[in-house]
Amino acid sequence: MAVRGSEEKAGQRPAFSLVWEERKIITVPGTPWSIPYIPHPDNLAFDVFVSFVVSALLAIMINAEAQAWVATILGDVRPGAKDRFHFNVLFHLSFLGSLCYLVTGFGWPKPMDIDPTKFRHPCLYLLLARLAGPVANILLANIAASLVFLIKYLDMDPLVFMMVLGVNVTTAVYHLLPLPPLTIGSWLVGCLPDRVQTLKRVLNFIGPILIVAIFLVERITHQGIVSPYLNPLVVRLVRFIIGS
Amino acid sequence: MAAGKVPGRAWVTVFAGTAINLCLGILYAWSVWVKYLKVPMKEGKLMLELAGTPIPQFPGWSYLTAAQCSTPFSLCVIIFALFMIPGGRIQDKLGPRVGAITGGLFLAIGCIIAGLSKSYAGLIIGFGILGGIGMGIGYAAPTPAALKWFGPHQRGLVAGLVVSGYGGAALYISPLGEFLIRSTGLTGSFVILGIFFATVTIIAGSLLKWPEPGYVPPAAPATSMAARAVTAVDWAPSEMVKTWQFYALVWLFIATTQSGLLIIANAAPILNKAAKGVEFLQRNAWILASYGGLVNALGRIGTGKYSDIIGRDNAYTINCLVSALCLFLMPWIIASGNLVLLFLAVGIAYWQYGGGLSLLPSYTADFFGPKNLGMNYGLVFLGWGLGFFMTRLGGTIEDLTGSLTWAFYLSALVLIIGVIVCRLAKRPMHVTE
Question: Which of B79, B238, B388 sits opposite A150 (nearest CB)?
């Protein structure tokens, strides 16, 4: 393999140090960023940032369209819906979800409107539809890994595809957080009984703000709150997918 | 116009489409520019310390590292993929002229920016971002527009002709780019190609035309195999994804892509190595360089043509079985290092890979109607992306077992399953039928 992950040795200044010191960093030889990649003045080279933005757009689009896809197959058909089967990322951008990519390297699309009452088993099928998002991100990460592998035959460096891989795995893993616009969170809220409409609305409103707030606090205080638990999983998945 | 020949406009649309794809295929020729931009080698090693220093023969330009050279290309591929399906939607809604001309202009402006900026950032913005957007929007326009004019008995050939442009572009852009760089410099080559692309896509794009509403393509002769399995209903994308036949088409695409790429990725380097010992091929390096592109383009036209005569299913079956046989023999062919066999194997892979790219648009049109073809084919095209898995899996198998033998067998198996799926899949029945 042309690409291998290697851990930074203690004492050596990591290519990009972020929030807390003991964080394990995976780097690819010649790659000036860590996984998960988090935009930071130290690593804002033009090519890296463009790759990051493109990867984030891909991750958002594929996450949203996969949910729409599975929801449609399971029974919530909406011909002509604006946010389904257009594969147009502009229909899926949400302000806080995109901002979150800049704050912490993951984010979310505009919440996909799914009506569980159209499903035969509302709660189960809603989970399947929501899970389709991160599953699709992992799938895309695998395609990127295949391109990383293939592109060495063209005598080229796979940096951009490494970025697509990293961003998608990060997105998929962070969507395990149980807060509303994310996969598990939006499933939990969706399964609440209809009586508590107000609670649902409040949770859906607060969720994204809370997520951005948590990660802003992490960045400002340099204290890991959630990331230390999720980042090892991200790194492990990335390594598994690139096979190193 | 229910029977007889298609009007002349139809063929104009086909060849205008080929011309547009011939422009968009510049992606395949990126390596020509890399050759001049990359830091030079010294004693088998890249002189990385030269990165960022001016290139003597091209004033204003600086050397790039190998990694930097691949960034505009990689971004272009990804953005191409990102825009391809919205591009299909633009074609379906606004017509092929808008799609093709917008796409072509994006690419042309991108090339000109890349040339004039003389910088790495300019290459990223011009070639990577604007070029990728242009290819995505432009590639989606000509094929569906051309297919709308023709009955099912001609769709294969027509799709093949249009998409052959993209594959065939490698044949002329590499030498042309090389010539332009030598005679006018890096900036000149990008600017001249940009102006050339703008001219061609505006002229060819304005020749692309949908048939008048109510136009009925000439009916197929009763003997045509291809005409039997054709829908009269136009399926919406959301209806299409609920049919199992859609997933069957995606599988067919995965099968042809993965086997083609697996052979090309593994046999082509061996072929190049084996060819080093042959003086004739050393002196005529263009044969090796253009062989793949040529067979790829011919495979698209050829497969399309015989699929019209013997039927889509039979054409797919033949292509895949020959390819599967080739895959079963691959371990032996690679071990033998025989030049003729390697040429043959790589040729079959390119032919079959190109054939898939011309069969699948026709299949999609047969199964789900021409109206939403741009969008529907975009969704089927996801199978092409998924086909990349196999090459990767091949690498994993090589790591685990120490050889690619089982990867080739597995790939052949995927093809054979593809053939079975293709024999079983008949067009879906719409609720209104």
Answer: B388
